[in-house]
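Training component of the fellowship. As part of building independent skills, the fellow (R.M.) carried out the full modelling exercise for a liganded target. The chosen ligand was cytidine-5'-monophosphate. The inputs are recorded below so that the supervisory panel can assess the work.
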Amino acid sequence: MSSAARTPIGVTARVPAKVNLELMVGPRRPDGFHHLATVFQAVGLYDDVSVELADDWGVTVTGPYADQVPTDDSNLAMRAVRLLAGETGIDVPVHITIDKDIPVAGGMAGGSADAAGALVACDALWGLGSSKAVLEELAAELGSDVPFALTGGTAMGSGRGDRLAPVLGRGRYHWVFAMGDAGLSTPAVYAECDRLRATMRVHEPVPSASMMSALRSGDAAALGKALSNELQPAAISLQPRLDGVLRTGIEYGALGGIVSGSGPTVAFLVADTERGLDLAVALTASGTVSVVKRAVGPVVGAHVVTGPTGRRSS
Ligand code: C5P
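Fellow's submitted model of the complex:
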């Protein structure tokens, strides 16, 4: 085999967004992060992260959110590639292209998805064959949600959200996402959560029995009732219109609604595709939301879709 045949010139990884089905926020830790007990679900809204050998390191972002993403060394995908290169002693420049469909600063871990995609794609491009454990360790250095973006499915997150355990769940769930016009900064939402709870005694976060039993049964109506997010009051405090969006979704038949992570995306669970279409139309017509997307979950985490030949494999 020639070296050109062995060395891929480009690899694309596809990475899903996430929604937190439950997000319990405990006390602030000495390192500034909060203790969490959360249940993540990966949903079928994707960023595609492509890497190719190049003369110099660089990032290009395409898609509807391109102008909101930095293309310098602060880009999380670039930081991921640099970290993997540093850990493995590789000094082969790559150019990263991110085709972005996950909202920026939307509470759906779009930046984390790009970091996870960059790790998986560069691992393949450089032929490293790193174990899942090694990639997960690097992922946790890059951000609290990055390990989950690698793993996908439905999982419990503890620590600062980076320590994962699989959840034995059933069911395929239909989601409708109401996107915000302006994003919310995650640190600002956690800070607002601290401010709102300043006089309260904050307990260690514990996952709820109702969430686990809803997931075990695969009952979408029970899951809709069990959705909860302790960052939601803080997100609503910073963007009061979210309260109206949540009420509109429930009024138009959602089984449950929740601010996704730190927001401002609002996630609605619906019974099936048809109810999802109806709700998407109703939300758009209500004038409270400008962009609505539908997706199913759970889906798999970051995975290579295009290999060395440039042919899409799934
Ligand atoms: O880990 P990540 O970079 O995604 O976190 C972004 C910010 O969100 C942190 O700097 C912190 O302000 C806040 N955060 C937190 N507790 C967590 C996760 C994130 O306070 N468990």
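The panel noted the following from the submitted structure. Residues 33-34, 36, 143-145, 160-161, 186-187, 190 surround cytidine-5'-monophosphate (CB under 6 Å). The CA atoms of residues 192 and 237 lie 8 Å apart.
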